[in-house]
């Protein structure tokens, strides 16, 4: 199996930049998922790796060979298309055997290999059929078989499950994961479905507007999102993001907004920063980390009113507007059913301070405390081309950088 | 002991009463009629201009009549058919028609496919200009182009002979006249056929070619193994058009350039039919010949349409 490296890969159509310089290293045997919303450039990126789109700049390396200008057929990569692209005029057998036949493999060898792959994917009884006589799931397996039969260096998959119904998608997902483990195959997998990313990936690369927003294991990208984009993309519903003002007071730093007064974890901030100085922050809390408390409870820094409650079966979602005004910030709470809330109820919400995420409002990047230092900073960027916020930013008041004094 | 009671399935709701208040509803029978009323104008035109003349032709084919309103039509039964089918000139005309059809195929299939495939390599405005150039002959009236071609084919000073370095009297030579008719007709329909092939190519999803490229196919293999098979419905359609319509397409050129000659070298079936009707003024023979051609072409069309159905691949 092969390793795929992208360096500074770029694609622009006129003035429109589809992919804005991506550096990515897919290790041998790794399952890497390119995740992002529609139009983030993930399919374009995959097609550049496949050789179907010529990049505007940058290089694609398979193992150590530069294949940027190499024809698709010579890249030793197999691709599964979103539409499956099964040749409608060929039988299942000819479809799976196509990559071997065009390479001039002998008929007997082709038949043998196709039979082996078909047996593995449970397609043996369908070999004589044509694509239009197959169900969605069967077509998907034929597309996979056509990729497998060549024993390629790596697999490129472009939303291969998006045309399946929900139930079939779940079982196929498990099947693909199992296949990956058995073959130890390198897989570059494009999807907009975060569940696929979280469940299948060794690492997830989140793309936003043609740039890498974060690369990490599913746990990393979920637990420590590197930007408000990642925080707002992952999770269903995604992380609550609130514009707050951080104020340095006599008793440490407090984040405040309408209906919110939260003490941020304090490591002596008040001692290095002048009292009363403020800066704007974006505060993030996952819906499942908010705990319902009685209204006015002393340990509930959030205070608001329930707008609506949604029943998910095992869990409930409550949308709450914070503060007294009707147009205040809205947060979603997620918890085991019943939450004990109804629309119109006044409610208090508590959160473990360790579960609170902070982001810079301008750059959107994550702000983090560095262990053993009182200097917060953005986390190490996941890619050299990723825009990073300056680690230290001036406060809104006072000439001392306030960020330095925050947690 | 606990009493267990089965939960009943939800009762099927009664279908809602149709709203009748405030609006008179058309009787059911009248509503069923609506689609036919929409079709009526087109149907009326078809009946007046196609089916009625067809029936009249059937009727006419059993009479002997010289088209003069003053002279009587004599009923002759199937004699017209016997005479038409046993006429030696019919065999010649069928032969000429088949030669024209075969000669037209390169112009309606081979060249358009090559041109359309090459045109895909051209991008932007150049492509439109290119397509317009190929399509232009279609817009030239056949009679007008015939005049120009007559001049180009002139045996002593014509451009064709000068370019080819030949001294052929094209329109007076049996083979030369047939070749000229085929080439000029082909030149006329080439743009139309190219347009059809281009449209067919647009209908072939690029994903197949992309998949084949990743699968390891070379451009030539993609064309032969993927693109052309997927284009086959279009190609069958063009074959159908060529077989059914070549005789009609060539008719105005035959009439203006050769009048079916020299001898009967360029008399195709429609020109023969026309000669029966409007040279010999024998309406019965003309109608009988027309019906025979109609039935034969109907059978050919049926075979080709069946073939085309079998060859079309719906990519869904």
Largest interface: A-B, 27 and 22 residues
Bulk shape of chain B: flat
The share of residues in helices of chain A is: 10-25%
- Mean pLDDT reading of chain B: 85
Ends distance of chain B: 59 Å
Question: What does the oligomeric state look like here?
Answer: heterodimer
CATH architecture of the largest domain in chain A: 3-Layer(aba) Sandwich
Please write the string of helix (H) and strand (E) elements of chain B.
HEEHHHHHHHHHH
What is the CATH C level class of the domain at 96-266 in chain B, in words?
A: Mainly Alpha
Sheet of most strands of chain A? 7 strands, antiparallel
β-strand percent of chain A reads 25-35%
CATH class (first level) name of the largest domain in chain A: Alpha Beta
Q: Which stretches of chain A are low in confidence, meaning pLDDT under 50 for 5 or more residues running?
A: 380-407
Summarize the biggest pleated sheet of chain B: 2 strands, antiparallel
Output the structural class of chain B.
mainly alpha
Tell me what you see in this structure:
- The complex is a heterodimer of chains A (407) and B (316).
- With 407 residues, chain A is of the alpha+beta class.
- Chain A folds into three domains: 223 residues, P-loop containing nucleotide triphosphate hydrolases (Rossmann fold, 3-Layer(aba) Sandwich); 115 residues, OB fold (Dihydrolipoamide Acetyltransferase, E2P) (Beta Barrel); 60 residues, OB fold (Dihydrolipoamide Acetyltransferase, E2P), CATH 2.40.50.
- Chain A has nine helices and 22 strands.
- Chain A has a seven-stranded antiparallel β-sheet. A six-stranded mixed β-sheet of chain A has the order 6-7-8-3-9-10, with helices on both faces. A five-stranded antiparallel β-sheet of chain A has the order 15-19-16-17-18, with no helix packed on it.
- The longest helix of chain A is centred in the middle third of the chain and has 18 residues.
- Chain A is elongated and about 80 Å long.
- In chain A, 43% of the residues are buried.
- With 316 residues, chain B is mainly alpha-helical.
- Chain B has a domain of 171 residues: Orthogonal Bundle (MetI-like fold).
- In chain B, 71% of the residues lie in helices and 1% in strands.
- Chain B has a two-stranded antiparallel ribbon with strand order 1-2.
- Chain B is flat, with a radius of gyration of 29 Å.
- At the A-B interface, strand 6 of A face helix 8 and helix 9 of B.
């Amino acid at each position: 199996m092969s390793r795929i490296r992208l360096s500074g890969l770029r694609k622009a159509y006129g003035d429109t930049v589809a992919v804005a310089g991506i550096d990515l290293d897919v290790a041998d045997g790794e399952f890497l998922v390119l995740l992002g919303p529609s139009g983030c450039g993930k399919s374009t990126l995959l097609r550049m790796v496949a050789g179907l789109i010529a990049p505007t700049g940058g290089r694609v390396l398979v193992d150590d060979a530069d294949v940027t200008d190499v024809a698709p057929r010579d890249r030793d990569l197999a691709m599964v298309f979103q539409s499956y692209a099964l040749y409608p005029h060929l039988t299942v057998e000819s479809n799976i055997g196509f990559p071997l036949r065009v390479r001039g493999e002998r008929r007997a060898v082709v038949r043998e290999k196709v039979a082996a792959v078909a047996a593995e994917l449970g397609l043996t009884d369908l070999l004589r059929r044509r694509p239009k006589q197959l169900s969605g799931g069967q077509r998907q397996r034929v597309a996979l078989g056509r990729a497998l039969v060549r024993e390629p260096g790596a697999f490129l998959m472009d939303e291969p499950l998006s045309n399946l119904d929900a139930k079939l998608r779940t079982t196929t997902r498990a099947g693909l994961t199992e296949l990956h483990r058995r073959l130890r195959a390198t897989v570059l997998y494009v999807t907009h479905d975060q569940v696929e990313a979280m469940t299948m990936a060794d690492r997830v690369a989140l793309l936003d507007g043609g740039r890498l927003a974060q690369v990490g294991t599913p746990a990393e990208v979920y637990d420590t999102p590197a930007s408000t984009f990642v925080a707002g993309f992952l999770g269903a519903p995604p992380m609550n993001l609130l514009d707050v003002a951080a104020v340095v007071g006599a008793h440490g730093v407090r984040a405040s907004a309408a209906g919110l007064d939260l003490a941020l974890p304090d490591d002596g901030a008040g001692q290095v920063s002048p009292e009363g100085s403020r800066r704007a922050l974006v505060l993030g809390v996952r819906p499942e980390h908010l705990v319902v408390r009685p209204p006015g409870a002393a340990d509930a820094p959030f205070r608001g009113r329930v707008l609506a409650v949604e029943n998910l079966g095992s869990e409930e979602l409550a949308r709450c507007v914070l503060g007294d005004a009707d147009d205040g910030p809205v947060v979603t709470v997620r918890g085991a059913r019943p939450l004990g809330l109804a629309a119109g109820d006044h409610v208090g919400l508590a959160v473990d301070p360790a579960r609170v995420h902070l982001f810079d409002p301008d750059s959107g990047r994550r702000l983090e405390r560095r262990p053993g230092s009182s200097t917060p900073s953005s986390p190490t960027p996941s890619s050299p081309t990723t825009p990073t916020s300056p680690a230290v930013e001036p406060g809104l008041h006072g000439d001392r950088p306030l960020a330095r004094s925050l947690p | 002991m606990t009493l267990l009671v089965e939960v009943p399935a939800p009762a099927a709701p009664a279908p809602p009463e149709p709203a009748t208040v405030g609006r008179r509803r058309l009787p059911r029978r009248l509503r069923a009629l609506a689609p036919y009323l929409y079709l009526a104008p087109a149907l009326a035109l078809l009946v007046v201009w196609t089916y009625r003349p067809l029936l009249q032709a059937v009727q006419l084919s059993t009479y002997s009549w010289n088209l003069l309103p003053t002279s009587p039509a004599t009923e002759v039964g199937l004699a017209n058919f016997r005479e038409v089918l046993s006429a030696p000139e019919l065999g010649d005309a069928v032969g000429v028609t088949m030669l024209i059809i075969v000669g037209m195929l390169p112009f309606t299939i081979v060249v358009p496919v090559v041109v359309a495939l090459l045109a895909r390599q051209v991008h932007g405005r150049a492509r439109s200009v290119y397509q317009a150039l190929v399509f232009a002959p279609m817009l030239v009236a056949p009679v007008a182009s015939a005049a120009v071609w007559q001049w180009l084919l002139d045996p002593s000073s014509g451009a064709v002979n000068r370019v080819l370095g030949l001294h052929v009297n094209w329109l007076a030579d049996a083979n030369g006249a047939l070749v000229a008719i085929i080439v000029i007709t082909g030149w006329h329909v080439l743009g139309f056929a190219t347009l059809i092939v281009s449209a067919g190519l647009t209908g072939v999803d690029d994903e197949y070619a992309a998949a084949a490229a990743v699968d390891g196919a070379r451009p030539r293999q993609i064309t032969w193994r993927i693109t052309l098979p997927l284009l086959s419905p279009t190609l069958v359609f063009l074959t159908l058009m060529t077989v059914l319509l070549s005789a009609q397409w060539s008719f105005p050129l035959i009439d203006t350039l050769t009048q079916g000659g020299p001898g009967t070298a360029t008399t195709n079936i429609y020109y023969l039919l026309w000669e029966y009707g409007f040279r010999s003024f024998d309406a019965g023979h003309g109608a009988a010949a027309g019906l025979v051609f109609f039935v034969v072409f109907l059978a050919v069309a049926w075979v080709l349409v069946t073939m085309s159905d079998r060859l079309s691949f719906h990519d869904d």
